[in-house]
Amino acid sequence: MFTKTACSLLVLASAAQGFKFTGPEGDSLDVTKNITITWKQENKTTEKEFGLFWYTKPDDLLTLSFEIGYKINISDEEYVWSPSDNTRKELGKYKDALTKNKIFRFQAEFYDGDKKAQDDVFSSNYTLTGVEEVEANAGSEVMPTWGLVAGGLAAAGLVMA
């Protein structure tokens, strides 16, 4: 029993070690520029492709993750990510946490068909720069023109009554 369990753990450990992030280098990422994400395949794994995500947990109650690459070939050993305006806006809601703490990282998910092939692999943690603070959206402002139209219709309704 113990031997089977130990062997199973060794097999799982070797599969999880088959992929390792090697970059981006440094402690901070500028999301206004392209970011080159690198990795290496340490052991031969059966997986040939993976999904690439950014991942962060700005507070104890919130986890954010977004897929930035799909079916990336492991043998490519790098992926250039161009953070979009929408990504910067979403991250901007958590500017204080993301610029002060190393809580942003990349995640690789491996699948064999529809089944997860191994545990996710995470990169080092980073702080972010180039994140602009965004206020929470409380709805759009009512344009003065629409206010005049609504007021005019209300007045016309009173006159007709």
Name the descriptors.
single chain, 161 residues, alpha+beta, Immunoglobulin-like, four-stranded antiparallel beta sheet, three-stranded antiparallel beta sheet, 4 helices, signal
What does this structure look like?
Keywords: Signal. This protein has a single domain (about 1-160), classed as Immunoglobulins (Immunoglobulin-like), CATH 2.60.40. The strands form 4 sheets. The chain has a 4-stranded antiparallel beta sheet with strand order 5-4-7-10, with no helix packed on it. A 3-stranded antiparallel beta sheet has the order 1-3-6, with no helix packed on it. Strands 2-11 form a two-stranded parallel sheet. It contains 4 helices and 11 strands. By secondary structure, the chain is α+β, with helices and mostly antiparallel strands. About 30% of the residues lie in helices and about 35% in strands. The N and C termini lie far apart (about 85 Å). The model is unreliable at about 5-15 (pLDDT under 50).
